[in-house]
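Subject: Sanity check before I submit

Could someone independently write out the structure tokens for this chain? I want to compare against mine line by line before I put it in a report. The sequence has 296 residues.
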Amino acid sequence: KNAKINCKLNNINNIKFVRLSSQEFIEAKNKVREFRRLKQENINLDEYSLIFNDLGSGDGWVFKNLNKIKRKKIKIINLYRNSVWNYIYGYLKYGGILQYPKALFVLVFFVLLKEKRAVRFADMVYTVSLYSKNNLIKNEIDEKNVKVIGNAIETDIFKPLGNKKEIRKKLNLDENKFYLIFVGRFTFDKGREIIIETMKKLEKIDRNIELLLIDDKGYKEKLPSNIKYIGNIENEELPLWLNASDIFFFPSLYEGDSLACLEAASCGLPIMGSDTGGLWELKRNNEILSEFIIDV
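---
Independent answer below. Compare away.
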């Protein structure tokens, strides 16, 4: 959906998008596996003039064939939602001292041995936020070779829907509660421990405050009683849950340009999040939104 919107915004008309049935999706996944197998074999590079490397997924194959690629003057474009530097700064700033070894591991094995090399061989690098761009430039590449194309959302779907009382009734939510909401992978990197500790403290202060937890990973551990676990939902239902809530709570350790935050803002929700990534570019650059984004 995001790709479709970006094509429309940039007047790109030569890409066709199709919605897959369940069976077609399975077949598509099998084709991905087939491509992974092909990467291990000798692809005839005479057939190609451009390699598009999404999120470093093809780095190993490109490294292996780099001399041949350069000799044939094939262009390479790399796409990154996050720089690995985003992860490191997030671990150091919000993760605490116990995350220092992890940050060092990521620096050595993912920056020095992979990302730094990958961005240098690329003819052009695309990323989703100025924050990620500035971190990618730390890999000693020319700033002119890094372009920013921000994430896009469907504002005709993610929008204020009106009567909150009626929406809560439809979702079987208490119309008198004050609801925080989190949407995303409920993992350490997304601020899981911060959320749990926050809700434990709030439980002692005000029992009228609850958090709606929409998690696409299926968290199994015990949670504080004021966290209402919703689990995974269809994307079409998400605007309802956002409109039923009072604040979007997103203390992620690192972000490139958070789609979840953009969707929440588009539904009219104030955002309480970490001072990291593309979210804070919204706060600095958008006078209206800046009043509704606060540092956790």
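---
OP: Matches mine. For the report I'm noting this point. The chain is about 45% helix and 15% strand.
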